[in-house]
Write a structure and sequence with these properties.
It is built from eight helices and five strands. It is an alpha+beta fold. Strands 2-1-5-4-3 form a five-stranded antiparallel β-sheet. Helix 1 packs parallel to helix 3. The longest helix is centred in the last third of the chain and has 50 residues. The chain starts with a helix and ends in a 13-residue tail after the last helix.
């Protein structure tokens, strides 16, 4: 996992939010000190949206704080303008509504994302998602990555061809997804990190945002088990055939011995002299 990348992204997000807040406050001070009251309130919407997007858990608190800063600046510079204070109070209410509604929606989306991620991580099957237009891996759970002998982070954002080498097979699979409303199921060949091919049964559905969600079941072991069972049956059949042939031969010899004993017994009963081998004397 690249921790430095996460740290860099966090710093960039914090810098953007800080710049938006400072820009809104400085613009307010400049506008109010020069008697401009029309434009600057809109500048507060940007930092509210940014915080809700980057840090939805702090969206409501941030909206309240920056709205109070806005009201404080208007009160400080426009004490003699009652109408501007009333308008500022209206804007204060607008900011609060935007922040609360957007933050609640963002938090709900994040909770759903966490639930989905938890489902992916705890699923018994391998699960991966890819973008239908770009064929980029959008998400993959740890189990699926381990099945292919990768770390999860090694595959995120990579082209699907990294684990699915057959272009013809991929094209047929995508056509199946686009043409059918029901989940598409196909047995395909995916390649692990060490180049080892594995058979997988893929079940896929297409979402409304062109993301294909695939469930992968490794059938390689099952195929090997089926092959072992088939070979065992063949060996058993061969043994049965050999045993049957041996029994038939033994049975034939036994019948011949019985016939010989009956012939000798009949000859003795009829008073015919026999030699030591049971043959009739002349």
């Amino acid at each position: 996992m690249d921790i430095s990348g996460y740290v860099t992204n966090d710093l960039i997000e914090l810098f953007i939010v800080t710049a938006a807040v400072i820009g809104a406050i400085l613009s307010s001070i400049f506008s109010l000190s020069h008697g401009i009251f029309e434009v600057f309130p809109f500048l507060y919407i940007l930092p509210i949206i940014l915080v809700v997007y980057f840090y939805p858990e702090y969206g409501k608190l941030f909206t309240l704080c920056i709205s109070l800063i806005y009201m404080g600046l208007v009160w400080f510079f426009s004490q003699s303008y009652t109408i501007q204070i009333i308008i500022a109070a209206a804007w204060f209410a607008v900011f609060i509504i935007i922040g609360v509604v957007a933050s609640s929606y963002a938090n709900r989306l994040r909770d759903e994302e966490k639930k989905i991620k938890k489902i992916l991580d705890t699923a018994q099957d391998g699960i991966f998602c890819f973008e239908l237009r770009s064929n980029r891996l959008h998400e993959i759970n740890s189990r699926c990555a381990r099945m292919l002998k990768y770390e999860r982070e090694e595959l995120l954002g990579k082209d699907l061809s990294q684990i699915w080498w057959s272009e013809t097979e991929r094209a047929d699979f995508v056509s199946c997804i686009r043409e059918r409303q029901s989940p598409c199921k196909k047995e395909v060949l995916l390649v692990a990190k060490d180049g080892t091919p594995h058979n997988y049964l893929i079940s896929a559905i297409l979402t409304t945002n062109h993301i294909v969600i695939c469930s992968a079941i490794d059938t390689t072991l099952q195929k090997k088990a089926n092959e072992d069972i088939r070979q065992a049956f063949e060996e058993l059949e061969q043994q049965v055939r050999e045993r049957t042939a041996h029994l038939e031969k033994s049975n034939k010899q036994l019948r011949a011995e019985i016939e010989e004993h009956r012939r000798i017994e009949s000859a003795i009963l009829n008073g015919e002299p026999q030699n030591h081998k049971g043959e009739r004397r002349t």
